[in-house]
Amino acid sequence: ATSRPRVLQYGKMPLPQLDAELAQAYEVSILSEQPDPARFLAEHGSQFEYLVTSAGMGLPAHVVDALPKLRFVSSFGVGFDSLDRESLMRRGARVGYTPGVLDDCVADLAFALLLDAARGLSEADRFVRRGDWARSRFGIRTRTSGKRLGIFGMGRIGSTVARRASGFDMEVAYHNRRPVEGSPHHYLPSLLELARWSDFLVITAAGGVGTQHLVSTEVLGALGPQGFLINVARGSVVDEAALAQALKQQRIAGAGLDVFEDEPHPHPDLLALDNVVLAPHIASGTHETRRAMADLVLRNLAQFIATGEPVAEVPWSAAQQTA
Ligand code: 8YV
Description:
Rossmann fold, alpha/beta, 323 residues
């Protein structure tokens, strides 16, 4: 048992079972559970070659800088915008993540938010529970079938959303940094044009460098008073204050949001609005998908320790190997 590799876990994982499985296989220290994490890092940082974190917790530069022997990070999640790229590259540490196993559940939630925003489902639920049904009528809403669905970010998740759309007889167009080879969908060369075209604009783009506030007042204006915004990507891609204003003034029809700029604190103005559906970052949060993500976190770590190559590696980490 003494030969088990040491692993620094940045915090508790999004699937409690995974905490137990990591502790079973490795000599784990959980940084967030230490009485004085900064002191723990200063005293023990040089003992760790392996670290486990999640997209939600991230990994800041000061932690990487306190781990001089760090070789591999196994992250729970497909997003890697919260992992400090610069310090990790400087350290020469490789980074594994969990792409591919959450596409269905994230696309499902995008559609749940889309249908809810269009039909007012969450608002209707509040209406019935308040007893308003016996007093008044619930307003009529917007059709979804046959409408135009714009997808910003045509990666694994975006294309899974597009497949869902065909069941609703929706027309699909997309914007992406570049056209996706072999995609049957219409490419629009700018987000602004996509927003102008769309009835429903779904954000499935990766967050991070170069994507901050791309969904701006101008883009929301192009989406227009009949348009809906759905975001299951990263809150940072949307100017949330501008979105709250646009919703309040009904310059767009509605929104469905699973992600926010400052989680767990949605912009306070959003909480008072009925034309937005709010979810607490739950798109990957099913038993099946979180299990698959946990398995990939474990496999990435085990395989890196055994062979020096993870199963799935973030693009900039992989690129540094071939450069
Ligand atoms: C998770 C996510 O909830 O995969 C991602 O990038 O944002 C979500 O699936 C997150 O990783 C949990 O921290």
